[in-house]
Amino acid sequence: MNDTASLLRELNHRSREVFRRVVEGYLESGDPVGSRTLTRTMNEKVSAATIRNVMQDLEYLGLLDSPHVSAGRVPTQLGLRMFVDGLLEVRDLESTDREQIDATLGCNERDVTTMLDKVGAALSGVTHGASLVLAPKHEAPIRHIEFVSLAPDRALAVLVFADGHVENRVFQPAPGQTPSSMREAANFLNALAEGKTLGELLQGIRAEIHRRRQEIDVLAHAMVESGLAIWENEGEPQERLIVRGQANLLGDEAVPTDLERIRVLFDDLERKRDIVEFLELAEQGEGVRIFIGSENKLFSLSGSSLVISPYMNADRKIIGAVGVIGPTRLNYGRIVPIVDYTAQLVGKLISDRG
Question: Can you give the residue ranges of the Winged helix-turn-helix transcription repressor HrcA DNA-binding domain (predicted)?
Answer without folding.
Answer: 11-76
